[in-house]
């Protein structure tokens, strides 16, 4: 039972860190290229779509680990301590409440927005010559 509680605490702290990175990405003090790296890393971390499918032995999970670790490591180095600490505090307060549904809604809305933008771009590319 103690191991289950430890696992739950680690999962909660990981969720807090990912949400803190999302909040840091929204901060106006963060430069555009750091935001881009954070958006790619967070999107890849929570996305069910992988570059290499998980069914491929070793490499399926290795690309997830390497990609997310590199992205988060680079983001941590580029973010200032003040921005990161403030984002962690906000994330902890938001996810410690009984309903962390807000974070999931935000992530879902971001993916829907990204898919809409891609669909519009594909539509314009395919049908730009027709008029």
UniProtKB/TrEMBL annotation:
Any one of the GO CC terms: endomembrane system
The organism's place on the tree of life at top rank: Bacteria
Domain DUF1232: 35-69
The protein's name in its UniProt record: DUF1232 domain-containing protein
Pfam families tied to this protein: DUF1232
Organism of provenance: Pontibacter burrus
Keywords: Membrane, Transmembrane, Transmembrane helix
Predominant place of localization: membrane
Protein's membrane topology: Multi-pass membrane protein
Localization annotation: Endomembrane system
Transmembrane segments: 32-49, 106-126
Keyword Cell membrane: no
